Amino acid sequence: ACRFLSLLPVFFFQMTKSVTNPEELGGLASQMTNDYGHLALQGRLAAATAEPEEIGFQIKTRVQELGHGCIFLVQKAGALQICPTDSYTKRELIECARAVTEKVSLVLSALQAGNKGTQACITAASAVSGIIADLDTTIMFATAGTLNAENNESFADHR
Question: Which end of the chain is more exposed for a tag (fewer CB within 10 A), N or C?
Answer without folding.
Answer: C
